[in-house]
Amino acid sequence: MKDVSSWLGLIAGVALLTSAAAGQAQTLSPQGAITATGVVNVGLKATTVFDSVCEVVFQGVADASGITLTSATGSQVSGPIDCTGDGGGIVEGWVFPIRANVTPDRQLRFENIGFSMRFGDCQNPNVVAAWDSADSRIDVTADKTFCRLSGVLTVSPATIIN
């Protein structure tokens, strides 16, 4: 009987350690200045008339708990939306700051991601984006409001979620 209770104690200890490790917060590294570069598709959810493709470079900062994007430059690849964000088109600019927090399952949750349009801000709250540590890449799709936004951004320097 002593052998059974010893094994049960060992199993309980391993289970406790495993659950404690699973509950640990994930962190982003390295920390400091970053750029996130890629192609983003923007448009309105109800129609494809305004669908546009933008090349964009975001600047921001990585900290242990996530990324804060603070500015961007862009260029229009296709479509009627001016991706430069200089106020010359329907899109007047990205709404900053854009904050993304690391989730326990090694993804990023954007608190709010969107752009300002002439008829109002087009923001999507609580958007979970897939994170690829091997390629330091964010794959985001946001369509919770009247706007759509999707794309893949590569973060530099190479960044991982631990």
Automatic annotation (TrEMBL):
| Signal peptide residue numbers | 1-25
UniProt keyword terms in alphabetical order: Signal
Identify this protein by name. Protein activator of alkane oxidation PraB
Q: What is the lineage of its organism?
A: Bacteria, Pseudomonadati, Pseudomonadota, Alphaproteobacteria, Caulobacterales
